[in-house]
Specification:
The chain has one domain. By secondary structure, it is mainly alpha-helical. The longest helix is centred in the middle third of the chain and has 24 residues.
Length: 188
Amino acid sequence: MNKLDIRRAILHLLASALIIFISMQTRIVWHLFFLVSLGLILSVLSKSYNIPVISWFLKTFERPIYRKKFPGKGLLFLVAGSLLVLKLFSDNIAFASIAILAVGDPISHIVAGNFKGKLLKKKSLSGFLLGVIIASMAASLFVPFIYALAASSIALIAEVLVIRLGEDPIDDNIIVPLVAGTVLYLLI
């Protein structure tokens, strides 16, 4: 695992935690809609212009392939996925789904980067299992542990699968919270 992946994992975790914290304070999610809208505008502008603070964030946290193709893609889809579950599900399900996204994906990537025996999409079995366990513990702050375990397992399996819409894969920051939220909704 390289330094960029570690920085991205930390940003992923902090952004998700901030979304949960702010959304717990106010159920109004206009701030997330505003962030998605602003993010799209900044992404388009960043393809052609060097925007001082935004450029630093992109150089520090964005994968080189997306800096020109779709700047800010990961963070933008993280906010969009969080917004979707906050609008579709009750608070406890939405917060648990975001918690699964917050820790399951980054943990599994960090562990996968440090061990051999990769599965699909640069995932290792140990990374997947640790991601499920830690994501389940985080989600159990909002829902019963057994439900969190089921939702984490299925959501992180769905993340490994490549789900395509036309020619492009759907971003895992959309897939994970929606699958987790759906599983929790069906269980609860």
